[in-house]
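Notes from hallway chat w/ T.B., transcribed later so I don't forget. T.B. wanted the structure written out for a chain they're using in a teaching module, and asked if we could keep both sequence and structure tokens in one place. Agreed to drop them here.
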Amino acid sequence: MLAESEVTLASPGWRLRARQLTAIVRIELRQRLTGLRILPALLLALAPVGLLMLAGILIRINLAPGDTPSVAEAVKVFAEVYHTLVLRFCVFFGCAAIFLMLFRGDVMSRSLHYWFMSPVRREVLVLAKFLAGLATAGLLFTGTTVLGWLAIYIPAGFDQLGPHMLHGPGLRLLATYVGITWLACLGYGAVFLAVGQLFRNPILPTAFVLAWEGIHPFLPPLLKKLSVTHYLGSLGPVPVEVPLISLVAEPAPVPVAVGGLLLFSLAVLGLAAWRIRRMEIDYGSD
């Protein structure tokens, strides 16, 4: 009959897995948030804020007396900038910079075998790395969303901030945009984690994902539903203009859009977890 300690070691419980998960997330967060690895994503996160602030200052300087733009007009401008610049460019490439390197970075630094030699299930390693990447990307681009939102009040004046946020729809709109940002990091992050794990050279798969998301307005309605952009656009609280030659598809209901992105991310993470159990390290070919 096995001793109790032997049973515990042979069949580690969820508490041990949770402690391992937490420890790996802390280690990965330190690596993601320090050093030069964070620089590309940080620059992408700051770019929209700088552009919105510069545009707001220039508009404010050149305003004629009594010609102050309304907050409603600024909200529409923010919606366009958010969907075209923040989501489709900055969050996309920011997630690529963060999540592609979760495994590729360890392979390039020839340190992945240390993780594989540790007494941690590889599925736990995948989840921990993903959560660390999600926290990094989510925090960075939440900052982009909040600071960019504040920048739209520069032309109208910050005296409009309190009434619009507390007595108008401002707080609800901002919370919605922050939620969309996290969902974008979730969906794109899962894709790029899998790409970085499955492909030795992630450039071509990343280019394919970029092209697929880029041609989203011109896809037939059925194929639009295979794009992350479709679900993110369906969640937007303020309608944005679409190209005249685009093919119109019905926006997905909010529960379908959120649930679809969650299921998609879980499926991709499941694929990554299945793949890592069969993954063999070969530094010589990298």
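Follow-up for T.B.: Residues 150 and 203 are 35 Å apart (CA to CA). Might be a good example for the class.
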